[in-house]
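<purpose> Linking amino acid order to shape
<body> The protein record starts here
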Amino acid sequence: MSVSTHHVGIPPMEIPSPVPSDTSSSTRQGEQDSPIVPRRTVRAGRSPVRPLLRTSFRNFTGTATVIVGEAGNKTRPQTQFLVHKELLTSASPFFAAALNSTFAEGMEQTVRLPEEKPESFEWFLQWLYTGTLTTQPTASHDAALGRSTGYIRDHGGQIVRLGTSNALSQHHPALYDIHLDGDLRNHAGSPKYFLLLDLYALSDRLLTTPLSNHILSTIARLSESTNSVPTPSDTWILYDNIRDSSPLRTLILDLFAYKKTDKLLETHKDDWHPRFLRELVVKLKRPGPEAIEIHSLVAWRPRSWSSSRACEGCRTLLKPGISGDKCCSCEKAFCGECLRRNGGGGVEGLGMGGGLQHDGSGCKPWMGRGMCLRYHEHEGVEACG
């Protein structure tokens, strides 16, 4: 389903409706015995920077045992991991406080996480050792890729074998993304949002802010590349297992507000989390200052009536010779008065209806320069470059 929209000075465009991820998992079904784990408050200084492994391995002298899950629990079976201690303590203030203490964890060099899922901790370890959640291409991957994708015809009519990552990235970037994402997607190519939400909850409790930011960027990228949004069961993870002040909630709400999700919200057979629905309604009725902040604005003045535009905030026509601002990306224009009213972060008076609409036809807050500013957390360290 799609809807055609038209704005002054902007050619009509098609906005496809997003779909929910085909893969969903909820702590509501099959995990009702799982406790809601609060965010750990242990803070051993600011979130550290991951060491460069190539030059750091030579200095690693010890290992620590991390026991995840609990015996007899089917959803969280007890699993033991042996991890380089220096890597754990350099990346996680939680592990630094535990393993460098004089308590039992420090004496035994063993940390128990009975409430966590082994699968989530495996993903944490992948990020810990590689710095990414995606799959790096290898010769074995390329061989498997050749068997699964075969050949395609390129734009020039030539038959191209997709047996290597380079060929796939050049001729079929969508398949290449699926190849790199690996287990972050299901067999149909839909994002496993539930997996990333569970991992974010774990990262939040371990105080690994860089991983949390990486997960936020990954969710935004997957949502945009697949035109999908989380499922109802995902919202239960988001609101039952993740802290209220998490920027992840802001991102998910933005995805639903800016994408055309009205039919999805209305017709999905599963129940959405009531707090998610309430916060989404409030957001749609009272959009925040990001309605202007998401744009890359430059000074602009229409030279003639044919180039004039209406202000997106108050709908006042910006006449020839009247200065305003225009977005370099979507070409939407704003008058000086609306920009001044919104400069302090307030939304009062921004537009006749009290706020700019989340029409999704132009810039999006989870893309471009606003991603880090709006969603990432940087506790005393430099922001993303």
